[in-house]
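Structure ticket #2291
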Amino acid sequence: MRGLLLIALAGAGAQLVDGSLGMGYGVTSASLLLAIGTAPALASASVNVAQLGTTFMSGASHAKYGNVDWAVVRRLAVPGAIGGLAGATFLSSLSTQAARPLMAVLLFVLAIGIIVRFCVGGRPGTGGLARLTGRKAFLGPLGLIGGFVNATGGGGWGPVVTSTLISTSPLEPRRVIGSVSASEFVVTIAASVGFLVGLGFTGIDLRIVGALMAGGVIAAPVAARLAGLLPAPILGICVGGFILLLNLAPVLHVAGIDGLLARGIGAALAVAWLAILTRTILRLRAERVPTPAEAPAEVSTPSAASVGS
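Resolution: structure written out below.
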């Protein structure tokens, strides 16, 4: 009972992060399940089934607060569902021995992507990349890739799709997060169907699924309300570092690195993560404190154009 309560709390925490950043629930939950010894396909299946409840509640909550652009949802959801079904079928066909390192490496790479996303980034909605992501045709392939990665890694829809759009598109960050969260419900349905066809219910602990779902559903309305209000760079770097360290040991094992060298690499990455986090906190503090030479001025900015409009 205590273990299920901890899993529920982990689900709530993951959903608070996911609903606020538009990413994090799947990669965090899958990393935790892998860490306690769950087989990769079962870990991803459990997370996707749990997300049937969390993504529905998250999408509904974002819609309630006006965070959803339904045109973006339509263009992401169907290709994302196709990618999710394909990814679930692919992972279900792999042996545990082959799938565990693949999933760990994928989650590790996604963690690095999350950290980089919140360390590096210019003003969204500008440049050639923004013109590319603003095209209607771009959203389909993006959704397809995001859905496949999401099912294969137990998470990845947010790190792939949200990171791309929030870094480049002129759409408001809260509307990117809300639209990607709403479309994820359709992707999760397709991936869950793929896992249930490939695996059945054999090995899926419905208690773990229920605990993850309950924690996420409870936290979803709060997370939607907090979208765009929390210091996203700090939160994103914390989550990325946590996922990275959780998956470091199996990734080093795949590379044939064990023992003292592995511990040294882990310590070095932990120090680098803390340095990046500290630098980001100091940078945000400096940006909030105006210099004496700066006079307060009101700047009128036009409303952001919708993606693909």
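Closing remark: The two ends are 50 Å apart (CA to CA).
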